[in-house]
Amino acid sequence: MHAPHFIGTFDSFVWEFLVKPLRPADPAPRLLESWGAVKAPISLDRTMVLGQFPLAIDVTNGRVSERVAWDLVESDAERTLAESRYNRNTWQEAVFAARNDWCGRGYYTGHEARCRALWHLRTPVKAQWLVPPLLSRFAEVVVDEAQDCSAADLAILGLLHDAGLPLVLVGDPDQAIYAWRGAEPKALEAFTTHIGATTVRLTGNRRSSPVICKLASTLRAGRRPPDTSVVRQDTIPVAVLPTRFAARGSQHQHAGSGRTVVDAFRAHAAQHGVLPEDCLLTAHRYATLPGVTRERPGANALSTLAWAHSVVHTPGVDSSQLTRACTAAARILLGYWFPQETSSPDRICSNLGLPLSRLHRTSFAFLYELPAPHKDWAADVWQAMKAWPPLPGAEPEGLKGRPGGAVTLPKPTAGTDMRAAIVHQVKGDEADAVLLFLPDPGNVNRWATSDPVTDEQLRIWYVALTRARRLAALAVPEDEAEPLVQLLTAHHVPATII
Fold first, then answer.
1. SS (H, E, C) the chain
2. 497 falls in which pLDDT band (50, 70, 90)?
3. Fewer CB within 10 Å, N- or C-terminus of the chain?
4. Could you tell me which residue ranges the UvrD-like helicase ATP-binding domain spans (predicted)?
5. Residue 488's pLDDT is what?
6. Parallel/antiparallel/unpaired status of strands 41-43 and 167-169
7. pLDDT tens digit string along 37-87?
8. Is residue 234 part of a domain?
């Protein structure tokens, strides 16, 4: 077999080669995207779900420990916990008890897979079953986007390196935007120094125009010279749009024309021959972005369906969002059709002898046919669920699986045929024209004075703007438009207010 022998995500590599080989065949091991994929309730004096508790791995002086990452818990879950008479230590114990129960059933997420991989590699009797096959199969392991590696990821790679497996790490520290997941530029630098890696710097850019290369250089560590644009020679100046930001992204107003800022950007892109479908709208936070609202972990079933409905009715929606929406609807439909089942949708389909694709098609059709969410939507949803043709073998039981609670209506979308996604979702993507929303005051001063090595916000902006091939635009508060143009001009970046 010719190399490469395996292409996949880091999660899938860890699962396939460092965890799954030492798992019992029964129950069949399953790797979940998150604990939100299964019904995993945690009940103390109130009921929450496992997916509401993000977990973290700490690696300190070679010791590995787990904890609930309380600082990453969503605000809705925070309010529920604040009303509980149990403290966080008790909740954490309940979280790990529930998690361990699900692991016993064969379910893991990437977090548990990393914990298990570290244990396997650090235990000689288990490592001897894993390492020799890896060394015989792979001449080297190439890790792309290495700047996104967490401390646990680097610890796994370090153990593989120490076992004799050559590593090639490809990454851009200026694109390290997952500090909340434990990925830090300094950690990667320390790791490469520790293993004695040879560094080769790449300075050619095969995506962006010279103007965008200059713009990007103002946001990266060391203020290094701009990369060389290899394939483009566009000279379109950076567009700065003075904006009156509203509570909802679809209502942001362009101060110069009175139109929405999205319409102003569309018109500007059209002047340079860029079609709407070749444009990308992006922002750091969902609340700022004109487009699809986010799925909220732990939301009641009715609100989750409302979010999924908004996704399937949004033109040009990202395929990963569409998949998540169909999966969410599938879980709710399965809860009604098979009320005694708690497994993941793929395992239920496997038990029924049905392809998962059939369930996703059914879920999409169900969502698409639902009426638009409204305050009394629960009755419409329930009637639709009862009338919808079920999967073979379904055994509904009365009211079991009926979506309850008050529906949280999704915010209106931008009503645009442009793609829209937060920065963390567009990493690796690109478009002819990109509009980045910067609603917070003081961003120009931050751009001018902060250090990208320590300020992740600058790295987030860098990732967003380097998605652009020909045209980059920034929507900023009215009083920051002129200072931003002055800042960019001082760095020899062509920029203009539109």
1. CCCCCCCCCHHHHHHHHHHHHHCCCCCCCEECCCHHHCCCEEECCCEEEHHHCCEEEEEECCEEEEEECHHHCCHHHHHHHHCCCCCHHHHHHHHHHHHHHHHHCCEECHHHHHHHHHHHHHCHHHHHHHHHHHHHHCCCEEECCHHHCCHHHHHHHHHHHHCCCCEEECCCHHHCCCHHHCCCHHHHHHHHHHCCCCCCCCCEECCCCHHHHHHHHCCCHHHCCCCEECCCCCCCCEEEEEEECCCCHHHCEECCCCCEHHHHHHHHHHHCCCCHHHEEEEECCHHHCCCCCCCCCCCCHHHHHHHHHHHHCCCCCCHHHHHHHHHHHHHHHHHHHCCCCCCCHHHHHHHHCCCHHHHHHHHHHHHHHCCCCCCCHHHHHHHHHHHCCCCCCCCCCCCCCCCCCCCCCCCCCCCCCCEEEEHHHHCCCCEEEEEEECCCCCHHHHHHHCCCCCCHHHHHHHHHHCCEEEEEEEEEEHHHHHHHHHHHHHCCCCEEEC
2. very high
3. N
4. 1-209
5. 97
6. unpaired
7. 887 899 999 999 999 999 999 988 778 899 999 999 988 899 999 999 999
8. yes
Which range, of 184-188, 297-301, 348-352, 431-435, averages the lowest pLDDT?
A: 297-301
Look at residues 166, 194, 222 and tell me which one is the last residue of a structural domain. 194
Q: What's the gap between Cα 326 and its chain centre?
A: 17
Domain span including residue 40: 10-194
Lowest pLDDT segment from 117-121, 219-223, 229-233, 234-238: 219-223
Tokens of 180: 């909340």
Asked if residue 394 belongs to a domain, the reply is no
pLDDT tens digits, one per residue of 419-441: 888 999 888 899 999 999 999 99
- Segment 247-286, tens digit of pLDDT: 766 689 999 898 999 999 999 999 999 999 999 999 998 8
Q: How many domains does the chain have?
A: 3
Q: What radius of gyration do the chain's Cα atoms show?
A: 25
Q: Are 101 and 127 within one domain?
A: yes
Q: Is residue 397, in this structure, part of any structural domain at all?
A: no
Q: Token pair for residue 307? A: 């979010």
CATH no. for residue 425?
A: 3.40.50.300
Which tokens is 484 given? Answer: 């931003």
For 14-35, the pLDDT digits (tens) are 999 999 999 988 888 899 988 9
CB 30 within 8 A of CB 107: yes
As a residue count, the chain comes to 498
Give residue 287's pLDDT.
83
Q: For residue 78, give both structure tokens.
A: 């925070």
Q: What are 360's two structure tokens? A: 């996703």
Closest alpha carbon to 130 in 164, 153, 166: 164
